């Protein structure tokens, strides 16, 4: 088209003035380094090269209602004309939002707003250390909690005390990494052993209740109850990182679905449909440590926390989630995708497990799974054929469909997706998988399919 080459030119300018040409580590996707976004709306996005894609990546998850939802956009515009950011005191919008979150989410008695999910998990671990006077944090293989030091271990770190051997970043003090234990997900025995060995030193256990940073590992109910029992017995703080699961799977989070109530919960992403927000809520006695009491508060601050336009976006998103059949719609389409993809792979005789929950889906290409059987830990996912996983997604691009072509990345359905979008996904997937198989997976692109830090 007449705009062809425009993306490459802008991306080249970006690389001259922005390190790596992107503002977040996972935005530079091998094979897509000239991707320049010029417009988004509903289930679509457009590029500087004049191409349009049906978007099943959905920005790693925030736009549950679809990109640029008109009701959220209107609320943000109205807030913008009446209320600028002051940075002192409080606004009624912040109160309304907190009141609703307290009402909706079982663990939340009090809540604070941040601008990102990473800030929320940072403050969760800080206040857990403050409350317990302990040092260690337990996290799980396959889970990502942000960019800060305590959790900056590769999601594929081996399930043992890591001791700084596998950070996702340079520049971190080894003693910080050493204070983090990594355990395999869904392994109750490993949790009991860690508490037997270190229980009195464990300040917090943090997990994605569904580790979506490696696609979708569903938690065993007995694993969640073991975490609750062990943390309660040892006096450690149980943190559910619901940055992805919150609002997307249920307005009351995975804790409502599972019936297991953590002490603290972190949120982000779908909470404001894409406006920059995070939140940390939980037990009032823990949350009150953040108040500026004489004698030592746990410090919490942020120039943009509770920004009026972000609060307006969150309130409008919540209203729509409560008043319209958003979950009904995305769950129905998600179920359709999983069922029909499973049938497709059976027909093609390709060993595949289509996993996910509600609006989230991901296909792992691995043999030996009976219908309905699912992988439960990151170790299980080592059997996934990364070349095919990335290879069919690269070919989907040629059909105007976007699932992120990086290994183990999940895909998302929004309220703006239609049955027609799903039809197109199914048809294009069949063609793309057939073609990837004919070329032996990703073909010459196979070398780009390693998962690196698998963070987003
Ligand atoms: N927790 C989880 C589960 C996440 O998936 C992410 C980001 N993908 C974060 C925390 C960090 O959130 P943010 O990128 O907004 O800092």
Automatic annotation (TrEMBL):
Annotated TM spans: none
Gene3D superfamilies from the UniProt entry: Aspartate Aminotransferase, domain 1, Type I PLP-dependent aspartate aminotransferase-like (Major domain)
Needed cofactors: pyridoxal 5'-phosphate
InterPro entries hit by this protein: Aminotrans_3, Aminotrans_3_PPA_site, PyrdxlP-dep_Trfase, PyrdxlP-dep_Trfase_major, PyrdxlP-dep_Trfase_small
Originating species: Wenjunlia vitaminophila (Streptomyces vitaminophilus)
UniProtKB keywords: Aminotransferase, Pyridoxal phosphate, Transferase
Lineage start: Bacteria, Bacillati, Actinomycetota, Actinomycetes, Kitasatosporales
Protein name: Aminotransferase class III
PROSITE patterns for the chain: AA_TRANSFER_CLASS_3
Pfam families: Aminotran_3
Similarity comment: Belongs to the class-III pyridoxal-phosphate-dependent aminotransferase family.
An MF annotation (GO) of this entry: pyridoxal phosphate binding
């Amino acid at each position: 088209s007449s705009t062809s080459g425009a993306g490459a030119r802008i991306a080249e300018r970006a690389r001259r003035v922005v390190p790596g040409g992107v503002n977040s580590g996972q935005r530079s996707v091998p094979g897509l380094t000239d991707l320049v976004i010029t417009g988004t709306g509903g289930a679509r996005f457009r590029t500087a090269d004049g191409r349009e894609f049906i978007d099943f990546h959905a920005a790693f998850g925030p736009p549950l209602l679809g990109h640029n939802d008109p009701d959220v956009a209107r609320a943000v515009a109205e807030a913008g004309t009446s209320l600028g950011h002051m940075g002192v005191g409080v606004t009624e919008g912040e109160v309304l939002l907190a009141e609703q979150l307290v009402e909706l989410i079982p663990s939340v008695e009090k809540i604070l707003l941040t601008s990102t999910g990473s800030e929320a998990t940072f403050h969760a671990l800080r206040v857990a250390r403050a409350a317990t006077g302990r040092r260690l944090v337990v996290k799980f293989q396959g889970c990502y909690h942000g960019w800060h030091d305590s959790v900056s271990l590769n999601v594929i770190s081996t399930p043992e005390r890591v001791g700084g051997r596998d950070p996702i970043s340079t520049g971190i003090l080894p003693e910080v990494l050493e204070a983090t234990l990594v355990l395999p997900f869904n392994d109750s025995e490993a949790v009991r052993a860690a508490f037997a060995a270190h229980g009195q030193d464990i300040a917090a256990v943090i997990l994605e209740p569904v580790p979506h940073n490696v696609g979708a590992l569903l938690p065993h109910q007995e694993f969640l109850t073991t975490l609750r029992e062990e943390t309660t017995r040892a006096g450690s703080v149980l943190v559910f990182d619901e940055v992805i699961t919150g609002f997307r799977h249920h307005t009351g989070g995975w804790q409502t679905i599972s019936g297991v109530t953590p002490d603290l919960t972190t949120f982000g992403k779908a909470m404001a449909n894409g406006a920059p927000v995070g939140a940390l809520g939980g037990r009032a006695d823990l949350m009150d440590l953040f108040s500026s009491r004489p004698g030592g508060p746990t410090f919490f601050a942020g120039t943009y926390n509770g920004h009026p336009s972000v609060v307006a976006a969150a309130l409008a998103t919540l209203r729509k989630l409560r008043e319209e059949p958003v979950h009904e719609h995305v769950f129905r389409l998600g179920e359709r995708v999983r069922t029909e993809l499973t049938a497709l792979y059976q027909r093609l005789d390709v060993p595949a497990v289509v996993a996910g929950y509600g609006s989230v889906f991901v296909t792992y290409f691995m043999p030996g799974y009976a219908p309905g059987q699912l992988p439960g830990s990151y170790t299980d996912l080592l059997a996934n054929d990364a070349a095919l996983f990335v290879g069919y997604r690269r070919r989907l691009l040629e059909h105007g469909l976007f699932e992120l072509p990086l290994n183990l990345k999940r895909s998302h359905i929004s309220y703006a997706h239609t049955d027609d979008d799903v039809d197109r996904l199914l048809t294009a997937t069949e063609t793309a998988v057939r073609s990837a198989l004919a070329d032996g997976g990703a073909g010459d692109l196979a070398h780009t399919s390693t998962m690196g830090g698998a963070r987003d």
